[in-house]
Every structure is written in C-alpha cells, then in structure tokens.
Design goal:
371 residues, alpha+beta, 11 helices, 12 strands, elongated
C-alpha cells in the first residue's frame, strides 16, 4: 500500500509539472505562429491522445519521466535541428527553426518560466484559502550554552534581516539556519527600537528522518512565539508566494553552488525513486503539504532546465546566445557534439541521483529482506 501511494502520488505530481512546463513552450510557440505537431506528457509509445483542430496531437505516453512539444520542422523531439530539406515559403512561416532567434528563445524560456509561475500561483492559492504557517520573527527564549546565546541574542529580539535577506516570519529564520550548519550568518535585529548586527555560526545537529536516514542541519538555540495559520488576502497571498518562490530559488542555487565547490555534501540529491518516496510521504500529510511539495519541485524543474547544458532548455539558450554573437548558428557538427555531451552529463546525474536513492533508502537491504 505504501508503494502504491508513493507511485500514484509521484505520477500525479510529475504529470502536472511536466504538463505545465510543456504548456509554457506550447503557448508561446502558438503566439509566435509556430505550428505544434505533438504535445506529449511522457515518452515512448502513446497510451491515449487526440488531435485538435490546429493539427496538434495531444497524447499521454508510457514513460512518465518528462515530456516534450514537437514543432513543425524538427528532426526529433528535442528541437535541436531542423529537417534537412527545402522548405516552402508557407512552411518557413510556421517552422520553429526559421523564426528569428528572439522568438525561439522566448519559446524555450517559456517552459521554465511556466514552472515558476505555477509555483507562485499554487502557493498564493494555498495561502489565500487554507493559509500560511506564520509566527512573528520575535524570539521568545534563548537557550543557554547555544550558538545564539554565545552570539548575544536575547529574548524579545525582533529579527529584521539574515545575510541581507528580509525576515518576515520566524519560519524564515528556521529555514535559513537549517540550511547553513557551521556557516557564519550576519543577523540584523531590533532590540527595543535599537537596530544592531549580530554574527552567529549555527551549530550542527544530526536528525533522523522518517526513512531512518541521518542528516546534519543547523541549530541556533532560539524559540519563537506561537505559530499560527494565517489566511492572507489575495494580494498579500501573491506577495508571500512570490517571496517564498524567490527564497527557495535563491537557496537552491546556493546549495547547488556549495555542492559543486565541495563545501556541502551531495547526499540530498534525489532521483526518481527518492522523489517518489517523498511524494508518498507528503501525500499522507494532506493537500497543503502536497501543494507546497509540488511548488518546490516545480521551482527545481524550472531551475534545472535553465542550466546551460545542451539537451536542456538552458543549453538551447546558450546556443542562441552564441548565434547572436556570431551572426549565424553553430554548425550541425558542433551542435551534435554539444548534445552528446549534454546527454552524457544528464544521464550521469540521473545515475548518481538514483544511486543516492538506493543508498539513502537502504533498498539493497530491503530487497534482501524479501528473500
């Protein structure tokens, strides 16, 4: 039953996010007068589908790890190269590869942008209906002998900024501290109307998650006030949703940068198995947790696709930037080499992430226990 819940939640979440991403590409392509031949959620053989009046085949395919929009004139589903043939004037008018470079760039960037927009809309709807966990950024207590006490924090201090990031909720402090164990933070506080700057290095605490995996998080040693669920007005909900999306984006980029430089472990990188397991766990906590999880994954999907790696949207944008600088696109051979490199890099990352899943979820031990 646990496996079925995880699998079902994973498929639902991934299908929605892929549909949103590809819908961004599709919408801007139609706006720019590009003919769309196929809109597919998933890869491989078609499960079901239909053809609309514009000639686009909308379909759901068997392999649910992604999707694509195929434009008129594409050799394949990656929109990398145009068919090697002569196009008529009418065909050139609706061909993706015969559009100006800025039109192609707009189509490509629309997919990741749609994921960010979805995150904002989903969170805003949640905050305006169910509400947002909210407690004022005021310390109710400082535990003696902790990093906070050593840095000079006191009860009734109101937190204003952490490393230049404005703090509106005590939950903002928690997220920043959890993500920065052992790293010095600059904190602007208001103490009785007087603003001052305190420097604190969060301690390191080892916690165990629901799967029995241990991980290190930052620990400050402070407590906040009463936590409430606040239902915001639509404008306020949109503001907090936008702010939360920006915060998640910034912290994700910081975390990726630390992993690349080796200053942070890569144990938290998750593949399909880990995401499926997390989807199942989050689904058990209810709709609010599921919406927040989907927003997080949508932001991650948008960010990953913007990385300048061939095979991803960011790789296409990189090629278009080179085309603008050179005055002409890269040759087919150079593009092919780039796409092969990108494919190898993406596959390597998938293998690494899946291996992390196997290790972190103790799948080998669980399989042995079945026999």
């Amino acid at each position: 039953m646990s496996f079925l819940i995880s699998a079902a939640a994973f498929i639902v979440v991934l299908t929605i996010l892929v549909f949103v991403h590809e819908l961004g590409h599709y919408a801007v392509a139609r706006w720019r007068g590009i003919r769309v031949e196929t809109f597919s959620v998933g890869f491989g053989p078609e499960i079901t589908g239909w053809t609309d009046r514009a000639g686009t085949r909308w379909k759901v395919s068997w392999v649910p790890f992604g999707g694509y929009v195929k434009f008129f004139g594409d050799v394949g589903v990656a929109s990398g190269q145009a068919e090697e043939r002569e196009f008529t004037a009418a065909e050139r008018a609706v061909s993706f590869h015969h559009k100006p470079v800025w039109s192609r760039a707009a189509v490509v960037v629309a997919g990741p942008l749609a994921n960010f927009v979805f995150a904002v809309v989903a969170l805003a709807a949640l905050y305006a209906t169910v509400g947002q966990e909210f407690s004022p950024p005021v310390l109710s207590a400082v535990e003696p002998g902790t990093a906070a006490a050593a840095a000079g924090f006191e009860a009734e201090d109101r937190l204003l900024e952490i490393d230049g990031y404005r703090v509106d909720r005590f939950e903002d402090l928690m997220l920043l501290v959890f993500a920065n164990p052992g790293r010095e933070l600059e904190v602007l506080v208001d103490r009785g109307g007087l603003e001052m700057v305190l420097f604190v290095t969060p301690g390191i605490r080892t916690v165990t998650d629901r799967s029995g995996n241990e991980r290190e998080i930052g620990y400050l040693g402070v407590r906040g006030g009463t936590r409430e669920v606040v239902r915001h007005s639509p404008p306020a909900a949109f503001w907090y949703a936008t702010k939360q999306t920006g915060f998640i984006t910034e912290q994700t980029l910081i975390a990726v940068g630390r992993m690349i430089t080796g200053s942070a472990p890569t144990d938290d990188v998750r593949g399909p198995i880990g995401i499926a397991q997390l989807s199942g766990e989050v689904a058990r906590f209810g709709l609010s947790s599921m919406v927040e999880f989907m927003a997080l994954l949508s932001i991650s999907l948008g960010l990953i696709n913007l990385f300048p790696v061939p095979m991803l949207d960011g790789g296409h944008l990189l090629y278009y930037g080179i085309e603008v600088l050179r005055g002409r696109p890269l040759g087919p051979r150079a593009q092919e080499i780039g796409f092969r490199f990108g494919l190898a890099l993406v596959l390597s990352l998938m293998v690494f992430a899946t291996w992390n899943d196997v290790v972190q979820l103790h799948l080998v031990e669980r399989l042995r226990g079945l026999f």
